[in-house]
Structures are given as C-alpha cells and as structure tokens.
Specification:
heterotrimer; A alpha/beta (325); B mainly alpha (281); C alpha/beta (340); A: 325 residues; alpha/beta; Rossmann fold; 2 domains; eight-stranded mixed sheet; four-stranded antiparallel sheet; 12 strands; 29% helix; 24% strand; globular; B: 281 residues; mainly alpha; MetI-like fold; disordered N terminus
Chain lengths: 325, 281, 340
C-alpha cells in the first residue's frame, strides 16, 4: 500500500474508536466514529484525509497521537507498536496543529510563553538566552516578527494565530505532524499563505504530514496521497491525482462536485440535476454506509458492506461496484 | 522574555487605573493595618472598666469616648476589628485553599474522584451555615472563635464548585490538548493553563467570600454566638450599642460603619479586579 | 444571467460610511460604499474578513452595537431610507420585507425552545391573525421547502439536536417564513463543510429562482459568487474597489485586488506543485487607514500616485467600474484578468 517502498513512518491497522451516546429518548447507542481504518504514511509524505464533518477524520488524527485512546486496532510508529505504551517519549516526535487558532492558544499567555511551552517540553534545561533565541528562531521559521512574542493571541489575526500554533508544534522538532483542518477557519488569503508555509516547512525540515480537511481542493494542493473517509470508514485511498481525476467511489465524486465552480461558465455548464438533496439520511444498519445517498447503489449495496480493495495499483476503493463502473 | 510575571504586571497596571478599586484596596488595607497595630495605636486596653467615664463623650484622652461600662470605644473597635477580620480572612483563605484543591482534582481528573468530591460537596452545601456554626461551637468549645472553621467549611463548596466548573471548561479548550500533545506534564498544565485561567474568577470569588464571612461573623457576634465577652467583636459591639441608640448613638454608628466600610471597600476592589483580569480589555 | 439593469432597484445604498470607536482610535470600517440590489437578483459582496463587508450590511439592518456610528449615507429600500426609520418601523421591516441569515445559525436559535415553537412564534409575531394550527402547517411546509426530510419530527426538536447544515436550513426556513423581498446572507456557509455548503448554495439558488426574491450575499469565497450571484461588489478596506456583473468580474477583472482574490479560488484541477497563490501582506488595518488607495501596500503594480489619492471610479463597461490608478492612467494591466 505504501508507495515509498521502505518501511512506513506510521502504520495504523484496523483502528477503532467508538463513543457511547446516551439519549433519553432512544437510550444508549454506539457511535462508531472510526471503524477499522488501516493506512500507512511514508516518510516525508503527505497523506490527505477528506470527508465531511462527523466522518471521524478528526477523531482518527487524535487517536493516532493517542490524545484519545483508541478502542481497537494498532498504531505502529517508526517500527514500534505505540498503541499501549506510555506516549511521553513520542510526544516530541509527533505533533498536531489545530483547526481553530483562537481556541488552541491560551488567551492569558503571551505568544512567547505559548511557544516556550514546546521549547521547555523538548529541552527543559536551556539557559534563558538560549531559550529566548529558540523562541525567536521559531517565530522567524513561521515568518512572524520577533515582537509578536510579547503580544497576546487576541491581538493577532487568524492567520498569525495559526502560525503561532505551527511554531508551537515545531518547537519540539517533530518529524510527523497531524494538521487537523489547519486552514478551514481562515480567510482565503490566509489559507493560501498557511498552505505555502506548511509546504515550505515540509521541504526544509523533512516533515511528514497527515493533512485533514473537509475541502478536497485544499487537500489536493498539499497531499501526495489522499484518503477519503465516510462515516468512520476509509472508502477510497489513492494517489492525489487518481482521487481527483479518476475517483472510484461515488462519494469521492460527490465531494469533487461539491467544490464551488471556479468561474461562472463552469457553474452554468454543470448540470444541477441533483436527485434528492434532503439532508441527514442516517446510518444504515447494514450494507454500504453510503448506500442511501449513492446514485449508483444496487440491491447488494444494502446488504453487503464493501471492504477496501485494490482497483488498480496503489488505488484502493471500498465499493461493491468497485472498478466495474 | 519574562514568562508568567508579565500578565500580572499588565493586570496591576490596569487595576491602578481603576480609582474606586484602588481606593477600596487602600481603605481595607489601612483598616487591617490599624487593627493589627492596635496595641501601638491606643494606650487603653479593651477590657478595663472605668466607672468614672461611663458614656463619656469623645475627648483628648478617649478620642471616641467610652461605652456603657466606661471602656474606651476606640480600643474596642480596633481590637474588635482584629477578631472580626481575622475570622473573615482566615476562614475565607482556608475555604479557598481546600475548595481549590478539591475543585481542581474533580475538574481536572474527572471520573471517580469527581463523583466522590461532588457528592461530598453537595452534602456539605446542604447543611445550613448557622447549624454548622452552632454544632462546631458546641463540640469544640463555646466562645473561642472556633466557628471560623465552620465558616470555612460552609464556604468550601462555593470555591470548589467554581474551580471545578472553570477547570472543566478550560479542559475542553484545545490549548490543553495542544499542551498534552507536546508532552507537558499534568502538574505543569495545571499550573500554567488551568490555574492561570481560573485565577480571575477565583480571586473575585475570594473577595466576595471575605465580605460574606464578614457579614456572617458580625451577625454571629450580634446574636452573641461565637465570641465570649469581654472580647470585642464588631457585631457584638453593635449589639451593645443598640441598647443606647437614642442616648449615646456613637458606638452603634461606629461599629456598623466599620462593617459597612470593610464590605464596601472589599467589593469595590473585587469589581476592579474583575475588570482588570480580562486581557481582552 | 439576467440582463444588466433589467429590473427595478430594490435596495439602493449610497455613500454609506460607518466607523467604530475603540481605544486605539476611530476605526473607519466602511468608507462611503454604494451599491444597489435589483428585484430578483443576487448581489455578491466579496472581500477578506475585516474588509467591512459585514459591517456595512449590519449598519443597514440596525444591528450594530453602541460603539459604532453611521456617519453618512442612505439606504433606500423601495424608496424609503432604512437608516432614518424609527425603531418600530425598522423592526417590522426586518423579518417581513428583509430577512437575514448568518454564519453561525446555532447562536441565533434559542436553545430552550423547539424549532417548531420558534417558527410559529416568528409567524405570529408578524401577523397575529394566523392561528397556531395554520402557523404550524405553514412552518412544516417551509421546512419541507428547505429540504428537510421529516418536518414534523424536526419541529419537535431543540436546536442542539441539529447538525450545522441542518441548523442553517432551519435558519433559512425561518428567514423565508414571511416571504421577504430581500434575503441578506452573511457568510451562511463559511462554517459548514464543502458538501453541506454545496447543498445550501443549491438550496438558496432554487429558492431564489422560485420565489423571485432578491439576495445580498456576503462572502470571501469567489467560488460561491460564481455559482450564485448575478452581480458583484468587491470590497477592500471599507471601500468598494470594483463592481460589475459576475461575468465582467470573472472574465475582465480590472482591479489588482479582484485579480488576486480570483486567483485564490480553490481549484481541483490545478497541477499539484504549482505554488499556492496568495496576496502578500496583511489585510488593511482600518485604524491607521493609509492615505490613497487601500490596497497599495499589497499591490504588485503600485505607483507613486497610489499613496497620494484614492483612485477615481473608472467606468469600463455599462455597470462595470473599478477604482484603480492603472486604469485612469491608461496603463495596461500586466495580468489579463482571465480566469478560465
């Protein structure tokens, strides 16, 4: 599955995370946020993960870092199973950048102190001046002015706040970063800048990314390979070009169509003959999870749940119709 | 970059701009200092009876006059303040310390500890303060100020619930998750993020805790519970003065004024703190 | 696409100027913007956040806080100046003639009432003569109209039980209950994910073509404009820098800011390793608003004159105008503005 050939940096197998939902009317129910997802990420690779909100992509990212404990499956990082071990030595190797930059920075800490938290976690015994140089260096890495160190988060713009979030993650010199919707809460102009920064950092520092977003056009710009998630399952996994230009799963095609047209002509050309847009189909008890919205569902889709299988080399898809379409 | 001290510097600067808060602070501080220095400020003690000066008017010797037993009112007010303020401050500090620890454990670690602590606090909160005071006094000995501990116990749930709720709120923020992802240890997360962020409501709660303790303490004194005569206490002084309201109103006016001034100055200071503690202005 | 200037003007905003008082000084959020919305048309207000596009509209609707002030301008809605209406008149106009939907619908729905009771309340607030039963069936029809599968069940639910997309549909249903002539949409899909966004846009488009209402759509995403709007005003730093029909803007953008924004449209088909386009530098700080053109600090074609005066409005075609010195001086724009 791994295009890099050698051992992948991160390998997850059949990872599961279930939540119990208590509802007075309907009693207890189980939400299968992540339901048996397997994938590999090679060194210096960017794996994009797309899906709509509630599909479990964020939960997957957090479960990989063990910020939430997985309920099943295994996580192997750099050849070692980290599913049950004490994560402390791995914290400096794996990092996360969050979606909402205003929420992920402590409003009562100055920017310098926020970044210092990472610096202290990595190297607690630095002298004062070394520590200060580290902080200024990190600010420079993310193209922020040194005087930002003395400001509070609310004094910065959204894009600058996100840069601080990235600097904090970089402070421990990680090799793997989960980017959890890092640009979704930002303005378009900032989005482009942050993506550029992340790509630049990857090149300079040799980082590996798991890039999570609901927007395929953003993921596409960042990723080598793309995984598409739907309701806790990985439904398609392939090279970015293949996912975008030869999507195998009907849901992937729906995601591509959802991207707003880049110009009015394309918008007019797109035949808007969408059958039933009515939201919230609910999760079917059995069969393919997408069967109720799928435009090419056949009877078998309502009975059998498809597994992720290869449709062409390096291109995997979980659809009962598979490559037959 | 000086770490955490900066935010407190900003806070002090903002606080100093609020005149009412500064005034409140200094008024309360000077009352406290005056009471603490009582033996040096007056040559009279608070218990010697001098029948020659019963209900004496203010004079050079007795600047506020004397009470119905010929005791110097100024000394009695100062010594009374010592008792009242000590009870209020110590009980509130105790409550804050215990409540903060309990609330942090419950709010940060959740789970079974939370269940246990929350129910314990609910039980404590359901006992009326006055009952608690009377039971404490009866079991530890009357009139020696032990009801201070009862006051503290009664205030613990308020502090603990506040800290627990704030801690839970903060735990939901992503910056805690970010700190965990960085591998920052629990004690440091608590010190750096949780305590930092619950400090404002906690400090404000502390100031209103002091005013509440002051009021309850003086009520107890007024009712004659808690402190044995001849030890003066503002509430007890007010009770004594009440009998002579018409003829010699100075005692009740001064003792009530002392209580009121303390409560108002602490409240003003608390309001100023609340405004100054918000970094978003 | 309707013809330019085909129908009668519904909302005519002229020279609107709004400022905020802050500790750092007066923020000049909106500096004399003018635009008009015609009956049945969808007008897009596009710009980065902090550019004043929301503030201008909130000022018209009387939704600004006490620290803000409308300094000048008028907003004629069917000939009446909304900015000079009394509070009561404005309140009856809002909701009945003009409705609004927002970015975060869940904070505009009252958490302690069911969807149904909020909808019935809205109908009856504007017309007491409608019975509760009639209001209920009206609400259910409207929920069905906005694409909700089982209106009866949804009517009994509380806002927290709804997903983001669902709450936005409910907001739209509430906004349309009184059949407004103008719907103001303030970034209604920014907080939603792409699939839900596409559904909401389709929904708004359908509703608009069916009911013939006009729409004022505030967004920072030009992709949505392409899908939805007939005409566009591009706002930067509280000034309108370019105005025109959607085709004019997309295929003949004259202002460098518009061109830069157009390049930012996420495209699925661009080659991967092409450098991500971006507008250099931070958006305009409205406190220390520079003299001259608001975009000049970030503009790749800036000239000396740009820092002296705000450029005049140049008409490029009927209903297409831009404020840029390049056009005034007759220089060729290096970019051709084509995007497709």
């Amino acid at each position: 599955m791994d295009k890099m050939g050698d051992t992948p940096l991160l390998k997850i197998e059949k990872l599961k995370k279930y939540y119990e939902i208590r509802n007075k009317a309907r009693g207890k129910s189980i939400l299968r946020a992540v339901d048996g997802v397997s994938l590999n990420i090679g060194r210096r690779e960017t794996l994009g993960l797309v899906g709509e909100s509630g599909c479990g992509k964020t939960t997957l990212g957090r479960a990989i870092l063990r910020l939430t404990e997985p309920d099943g499956g295994s996580i192997t990082y750099d050849g070692r199973d980290i599913t049950h071990i004490n994560m402390f030595p791995y914290r400096s190797r794996m990092q996360i950048v969050f979606q909402d930059p205003s929420d992920c920075l402590d409003p009562r800490c100055r920017i310098g102190d926020i970044i210092a938290e990472g610096v202290d976690a990595k190297a607690p015994k630095l002298s004062k001046s070394e520590r200060r140089d580290m902080i200024y260096g990190l600010l420079e890495t993310v193209s922020l002015a040194p005087d930002c160190a003395h400001r509070y988060p609310h004094e910065l713009s959204g894009g600058q706040q996100q840069r601080v979030g990235i600097a904090r993650a970089l402070a421990v010199a990680p090799e793997f970063i989960v980017c959890d919707e890092p640009v979704s809460a930002l303005d378009v102009s900032y989005q482009a800048q942050i993506i550029e920064l992340l790509q630049d950092l990857q090149e300079r520092l040799g980082l590996t990314y798991l890039f999570i977003s609901h927007d395929l056009s953003v993921v596409r710009r960042m990723s080598d390979r793309i995984g598409v998630m739907y309701l806790g399952k990985l439904v398609e996994l392939a090279k970015a070009e293949d996912v975008v230009f030869h999507p195998a799963h009907p849901y992937t095609r729906a995601l591509i169509e959802a991207i707003p047209a880049p110009d009015p002509k394309t918008a007019r050309e797109r035949s808007r003959t969408h059958a039933d847009d009515r939201a919230d189909p609910g999760i079917p008890d059995k069969g393919c999870r997408y069967c109720r919205l799928c435009e090419c569902a056949v009877p078998v889709c309502h009975i059998d749940e498809p597994e992720l299988t290869s449709v062409s080399p390096g291109h995997f898809c979980a659809c009962n119709l598979g490559h037959k379409q | 970059m000086n770490t955490t001290s900066n935010i407190w510097f900003d806070f002090l600067r903002k606080l100093c701009k609020n005149r009412a808060a500064v005034a409140g602070f200094f008024v309360f501080l000077s009352i406290c200092i005056a009471c603490a220095l009582a033996p040096y400020l007056t040559k009279w003690d608070y218990f010697s009876i001098d029948t020659t000066i019963v209900h004496a008017a203010p004079s050079r010797e007795h600047i506020l006059g004397a009470d119905n037993l010929g005791r110097d009112i100024f000394s009695r007010l100062l010594y009374g303040g010592r008792v009242t303020l000590r009870i209020a401050l110590v009980s509130t500090s105790l409550a804050a310390a215990v409540g903060c620890a309990a609330g942090l454990i419950a709010g940060y670690f959740r789970g079974r500890a939370d269940f246990f602590i929350s129910h314990l606090l609910d039980m404590l909160a359901s006992i009326p303060v006055f009952m608690l005071i009377i039971v404490t006094e009866a079991s530890l000995g009357w009139g020696r100020g032990y009801f201070m501990y009862a006051l503290a116990a009664a205030a613990v749930p308020q502090f603990a619930m506040l800290v627990r709720a704030s801690a839970m709120n903060i735990m939901g923020c992503t910056y805690i998750e970010a700190a965990r992802a960085l591998g920052v240890r629990h004690d440091k997360i608590i010190r750096r993020h949780v305590l930092h962020n619950i400090a404002p409501p906690l400090i404000i709660r502390f100031t209103s805790g002091i005013t509440e303790a002051l009021v309850i303490c003086t009520i107890m004194g007024y009712l004659g519970v808690g402190i044995n005569p001849p030890t003066p206490e503002w509430g007890a002084l007010a009770y004594t003065g009440k009998a002579f309201t018409r003829s010699h109103p100075l005692l009740i006016i001064l003792s009530s004024a002392a209580i009121a001034v303390c409560v108002i100055s602490v409240s003003l200071f608390g309001d100023g703190l609340r405004d100054a503690l918000d970094p978003r202005e | 696409m309707r013809e330019d200037g085909g129908s009668e003007i519904l909302l005519d905003v002229m020279g609107l100027d709004v400022s905020f008082q802050t500790r750092r000084g007066d923020v000049r959020a909106v500096n004399g913007i003018s635009y008009c919305v015609r009956r049945g048309e969808a007008h897009g207000l596009v710009g980065e956040s902090g550019g004043g596009k929301s503030v201008g509209v909130h000022a018209i609707m009387g939704l600004l806080g006490t620290s803000s002030r409308v300094n000048a301008g008028s907003a004629l809605f069917e000939g009446r100046d909304i900015l000079r209406l009394k509070k009561g008149e404005l309140a009856s106009l809002r909701g009945r003639e003009i409705s609004m939907i927002f970015q975060n619908p869940s904070s505009y729905l009252d958490p302690v009432f069911t969807i149904g009771s909020q909808m019935i309340e809205t109908i009856r607030a504007h017309d007491r003569s409608i019975s509760k039963g009639a209001a209920r069936s009206l609400s259910e029809d409207m929920l069905w109209e906005v694409g909700i599968r089982d209106p009866e069940r949804r009517m009994r639910q509380y806002p927290f039980e709804l997903s983001g997309g669902m709450s936005q549909r409910v907001m739209i249903a509430i906004a349309l209950l009184c059949k407004p002539k103008l719907l103001i949409a303030d970034e209604p899909t920014t907080a939603l994910d792409v699939t839900t966004q596409a559904q909401i846009i389709r929904l708004l488009k359908n509703l608009q073509s069916r009911s013939g209402m006009a729409m004022l759509y505030i967004t920072h995403n030009f992709g949505i404009v392409a899908e939805l709007c007939d005409r566009v005003s591009v706002i930067c730093g509280g000034y309108i820098v370019e105005q025109g029909s959607t085709d004019d803007i997309f295929y003949g953008a004259a202002h460098p800011y518009t061109q830069a924004l157009l390049k930012l449209i996420p495209r699925i088909d661009s080659p991967k390793n092409e450098p991500a386009p971006s507008i250099g530098g931070p958006p305009v700080d409205s406190v220390s608003l520079p003299k001259g053109c608001v975009f000049r600090k970030r503009c790749p074609f800036r000239m000396d004159i740009c820092s002296r005066d705000f450029p005049p409005r140049i008409n490029l075609a009927p209903y297409h105008s831009a404020n840029c010195w390049l056009l005034e001086l007759g220089k060729e724009l290096p970019g051709d503005g084509q995007n497709g």
